[in-house]
Amino acid sequence: MNADEFRVHGKELIDYIADYLENIRTRKVFPNDKKPGFLRELIPNSAPIDGEAWPNILQDVEDVILPGVTHWQSPHMHAYFPALTSYPSMLGDMLSNAINAIGFTWASSPASTELEIIVMNWLGKMIGLPDEFLLLNNESKGGGVIQTTASEATLTCLLAGRARMIKRYEKKITEFDPAELNARFVAYCSNQAHSSVEKAGLIGLVKTRLLEPDNNLSLRGETLLQAIKEDRENGLIPFWVCATLGSTGACSFDNLAEIGAVCESENLWLHVDAAYAGSAFICPEFRIWLKGIDKADSIAFNPSKWLMVHFDCTAMWIRDSTALHSSFVVNPLYLQHENSGLAVDYMHWQIPLSRRFRALKLWFVIRNYGITGLQKHIREGVRLARKFELLVLSDKRFEIPAVRHLGLVTFRLKGKNELTEELLKRTNSRGNIHCVPASLPGNIYIIRFTVTSQYTTGEDIVKDWNEIKTVADQILREVEN
Ligand code: PLP
């Protein structure tokens, strides 16, 4: 494809994308008729010898690919957490893809690094982070960085916390063996934390204790303190805690103020995983859960979830980036440059070397919507979730087993788990709305209903509730007979 053809096909593709999104509600949100392996029958099993004409390729997208896609932007998508996109975000990535500068060091693409620093300062201020997390001048120890996923941010911060603790022991003991220390390290999180926290522990070869939250699914300081004491008595070395703000199952919030106080007094690294809920902190009324953030060492959230910056984009801030450097600095000659050690080299802040120019899409979205535009979007999502919650509460056959926070409503049919399991199975198999389950303490099976799409309206919420009720009517009628 040459530049002239690109101009034509690129513009066609822009139209195709705009049509796709404008008409998204006409597509079935979930491809309920597809079975594993379906694409093998529709696509040749070897690559073409000669290049194909572009129109044929695009036609196959419509005929073969899109019918098998789950339409995450659909107004009837209520599964997982949002993975929103927006036009300024897409334009940002289009430009980033064209430039394709790999900004691992400052010198490998100076503007990529500089823009990322600035836009991460903007975003940090937008969610009310203390200045220590920002990179405001040459004296700043903290700063923000864009990671690929929240999982990667958690692992990165676990490794940084581990490096910090190893350093402390290095000074204290004479026969120093980091591997022996590592075997005694223990990390903590709530049993409501995302599985990626446990995974970080597996990769870091450290023990992870999943602690019981209180009745509001909130991990409390006292529970953490008790666990730390027990472990110290057993010769283990507590080193790292992950507090979750907005858990995956029910969007519950750990008590950051209490946990922060414990981490401060016990000298542990405190990481905050706010993957979903972090976007809401741009609205001052939702920052109540951030109380205690001044005691944290790191925090991450995904603008790629709710803030309309499409995947991938995880915003991570750290109070003292030297801890990252202790974990990740390797300095081969071919990566050194005139400003090494003076400028930020983001390769020292992350696991991979190479990195995309992701700051562009974040910059475009923040500038194009403005803070008020983004706040309006978040508040609308919360308003619609509240609407759905009221509909569920109006029907005595249903219950809401966990307090609703932000855009996620958990609900179930009263009675045995099997009823709710059947409700979810049948609802998803109709393909008109899409939800996923979760399990709450006490083996309570729930359906999660997240307001995800910016195309969802009040009418959609009513329609989706009626869809759920229709299936529930059917199931309960069968049970009665
Ligand atoms: N943490 C929480 C609280 C989440 O809800 C999720 C995913 O939804 C993750 C971490 C993992 O996010 P990612 O896919 O960016 O690794």
Description:
This protein has 481 residues and is α/β, with parallel strands linked by helices. Among the domains are: 3-82, dopa decarboxylase, N-terminal domain, CATH 1.20.1340; 101-356, 3-Layer(aba) Sandwich (Aspartate Aminotransferase, domain 2), CATH 3.40.640.10. It is 43% helix and 12% strand. It has 14 helices and eleven strands. It has helices spanning 3-22, 54-65, 87-99, 110-126, 150-172, 178-184, 195-204, 221-233, 256-266, 303-306, 322-328, 359-393, 417-430, 458-480; strands at residues 143-147, 185-190, 207-211, 237-244, 269-273, 298-301, 314-318, 398-399, 408-413, 436-440, 444-450. It has a seven-stranded mixed sheet, with helices on both faces. A four-stranded antiparallel sheet has the order 8-9-11-10. A hairpin with an 8-residue loop joins strand 8 and strand 9 (408-413). Helix 13 crosses helix 14 (458-480). The N and C termini lie far apart (64 Å). Bound molecules: pyridoxal-5'-phosphate (PLP). Residues 81, 149-151, 194, 196, 244, 246-248, 273, 275-276, 302, 314 line the site of pyridoxal-5'-phosphate.
Task: Give the gist of this structure.
The protein is α/β, with parallel strands linked by helices. It has helices at 3-22, 54-65, 87-99, 110-126, 150-172, 178-184, 195-204, 221-233, 256-266, 303-306, 322-328, 359-393, 417-430, 458-480, and strands at residues 143-147, 185-190, 207-211, 237-244, 269-273, 298-301, 314-318, 398-399, 408-413, 436-440, 444-450.
